[in-house]
Design brief:
By secondary structure, the protein is of the alpha+beta class. The chain has helices at about 5-15, 50-65, 135-150, 155-160; strands at about 20, 30-45, 65-70, 75-80, 95-105, 105-110, 115-120, 125-130, 160-174. The protein has a single domain (about 5-174), classed as Lipocalin (Beta Barrel). The model is unreliable at about 1-5 and about 15-25 (pLDDT under 50).
């Protein structure tokens, strides 16, 4: 798996782990095309150099990122991400992911998983990391870490010394 796929998985974590809050309009539908607008992030590590590097890399990624998500009425979605290869050429070109989504009991479910906060208004969709993101990230890295990175996820996070990771990704309706 390429490093780009790992980044795509990270963004997919934002989609996959979602709970719903609506902004004053219960008739707002997520169905439609959503285009990436901005990203806010805050990463803190034990080592100030790692904190600076992580925030710098995310800042560069956020400025180059191009992402579109299409939620269809039939309960399917397509997410396309590109632009990151300009920062990290090894990541290659566009990455596309198809899957299923649903709204159940006020929660956005992506590919059967619901964990991240999201806010939906008429023309704006915001996906944000949950408070327990480091635990979720460790679990995700444990699944893929040994095979692709050569060490378990909790060891990766411990090695990096990351103590806080918060991110919100904002999309505008097209």
């Amino acid at each position: 798996m390429k490093l780009k796929n790992l980044l795509f998985i990270g963004v997919a974590v934002l989609f996959a782990f979602s709970s719903c809050n609506r902004d004053n309009d219960s008739a707002v539908s997520i169905v439609g095309t959503w285009k990436y607008d901005t990203m806010e992030f805050d990463v803190v590590a034990n080592d100030p150099a790692t904190t600076l590097l992580a925030n710098g890399v995310l800042g560069a990624v956020s400025s180059m990122l191009d992402m579109t998500i299409v939620f269809r009425e039939d309960g399917t979605y397509t997410a396309t991400i590109s632009g990151i290869e300009e920062i990290i050429p090894e990541l290659g070109g566009n990455e596309t992911n198809d899957g299923v989504w649903s709204l159940e009991n006020g929660r956005l479910i992506i590919d059967g998983i619901a964990i991240i906060d999201h806010r939906l208004s008429r023309n704006r969709l915001t996906l944000s990391t949950p408070p327990n993101l480091l635990d979720l990230l460790s679990d995700l890295l444990n699944v893929i870490g040994d095979e692709f990175l050569g060490m378990p996820g909790d060891e990766i996070l411990e090695m990096l010394g990351i103590t806080r990771f918060n991110m919100s990704v904002h999309f505008n309706r097209q």
